[in-house]
Amino acid sequence: DTAVSQTPKYLVTQMGNDKSIKCEQNLGHDTMYWYKQDSKKFLKIMFSYNNKELIINETVPNRFSPKSPDKAHLNLHINSLELGDSAVYFCASSQGGGRSNQPQHFGDGTRLSIL
Amino acid sequence: GESVGLHLPTLSVQEGDNSIINCAYSNSASDYFIWYKQESGKGPQFIIDIRSNMDKRQGQRVTVLLNKTVKHLSLQIAATQPGDSAVYFCAESSGANSKLTFGKGITLSVRP
Question: How far apart are CA A33 and CA A45, in angstroms?
């Protein structure tokens, strides 16, 4: 009965590779997010989609490309991975994004390690 | 730029005591505030939220206090338990796009 699920949980890959992280939520929410958490536990928003429309796009390298095929899914594709991309990436979802503030519910993260 | 921060990086409390975790924010336009708990290997877990039209909100064993005059937010945990040990984050947002700005986490350690 996982509410926000991400795959894979761990991702170890070499510099220069392209990888994708998938996220699905079964809460019926209309807004989904990607966050990056660095080694100091600092959490920063990367992207947000509301009803498949991009509403937040922070200053993230264009090597990162989110895709939302439907309201329940938000995937993150990363091209030409760099050492600095090593982090934990969290997906989250909420209801009413863009019009109201409701709690965001997080997945358990994808731990990306670049060799 | 705007920032959200915590006064203390770590907090150690005795089991059964009350815990108070403090947070300062700088954006006077912030209108929504939220506390999260993050356990090792897990994602942030929602604890409690408060909107700027309130100054206090209570949940089960937790209370959030908001002082907009001094831009201060606090989380009080009553009768702290070992299971409360985690990293706690405050976050705020302003405007309509639900963008949350997180503060630096604080580690709560509960002594048996």
Answer: 7
